[in-house]
């Protein structure tokens, strides 16, 4: 997790510390992070951060510096960046997308009708779609990824529409997971989605053309992909050769 532990936003599902003026980021963090990760012996890593609306580029440059340092130390490592929306700043998105990362992830979090209830007012459905669309457009073969939390009161039709909107901008990977209320001050869980329903959403999502759908009560985090590095690595290699149809059949 880059850029500190304090977010400038206050989403109603997230228990991270918040402040309008978090401490400035550590200028040496990109290098220190790269050195640490390179020493772990992992072949896939997810870099993420809090939102930093107090920094002119939203922290995009800091992220990009970390990716470049890591790729220099360990060129074979696959790097996923799970980013903020950078307030919709598409140049900030492009600068990070062109830093050498392998997977650009940004979470739309919930369906359109629930955005204002669930997310900080500075976030938004169309802004998030814009980020993912820009990331995809920046680099040939860029893999994009997003997530939707379930159990907040959304309807099936709204989930289908959100999936369709993500596919319409060529998002490749989707994760669906159960929302869990972190403290009493946060949004209540409206529904615990059954494992069968999660299976249904996986099948439904893959029928829409997502290359991979991780759908399950715990799959909002990265664990399923972390457990599947060979598949994901194969997917990335195949995508670079534009063998998308083969990839869809075997992932
Ligand atoms: S922007 Fe991200 S880190 Fe910040 S409060 Fe919202 S979900 Fe949490």
UniProtKB/TrEMBL annotation:
Co-factor requirement: [4Fe-4S] cluster
Recorded catalytic activity of this chain's protein: [[Fe-S] cluster scaffold protein carrying a second [4Fe-4S](2+) cluster] + N(6)-octanoyl-L-lysyl-[protein] + 2 oxidized [2Fe-2S]-[ferredoxin] + 2 S-adenosyl-L-methionine + 4 H(+) = [[Fe-S] cluster scaffold protein] + N(6)-[(R)-dihydrolipoyl]-L-lysyl-[protein] + 4 Fe(3+) + 2 hydrogen sulfide + 2 5'-deoxyadenosine + 2 L-methionine + 2 reduced [2Fe-2S]-[ferredoxin]
Enzyme type, top EC level: transferase
Species for this entry: Triticum turgidum subsp. durum (Durum wheat)
Coiled-coil regions listed: none
Residues of the signal peptide: none
TM region positions: none
This protein's UniProt keywords: 4Fe-4S, Iron, Iron-sulfur, Metal-binding, Mitochondrion, S-adenosyl-L-methionine, Transferase
InterPro entries, alphabetized: Aldolase_TIM, Elp3/MiaA/NifB-like_rSAM, Lipoyl_synth, rSAM, rSAM_sf
The enzyme's E.C. designation: 2.8.1.8
Family to which the UniProt record says this protein belongs: Belongs to the radical SAM superfamily. Lipoyl synthase family.
GO MF annotation terms: 4 iron, 4 sulfur cluster binding; lipoate synthase activity; metal ion binding
SUPFAM superfamilies the record matches: Radical SAM enzymes
Organism phylogeny: Eukaryota, Viridiplantae, Streptophyta, Embryophyta, Tracheophyta
Subcellular location: Mitochondrion
Cofactor: binding comment: Binds 2 [4Fe-4S] clusters per subunit. One cluster is coordinated with 3 cysteines and an exchangeable S-adenosyl-L-methionine.
Cellular component annotations (GO), alphabetically ordered: mitochondrion
Protein name per Swiss-Prot or TrEMBL: Lipoyl synthase, mitochondrial
Residues reported in the UniProt entry to bind [4Fe-4S] cluster: 7, 11, 14
Involved pathway(s): Protein modification; protein lipoylation via endogenous pathway; protein N(6)-(lipoyl)lysine from octanoyl-[acyl-carrier-protein]: step 2/2
Domain of life: Eukaryota
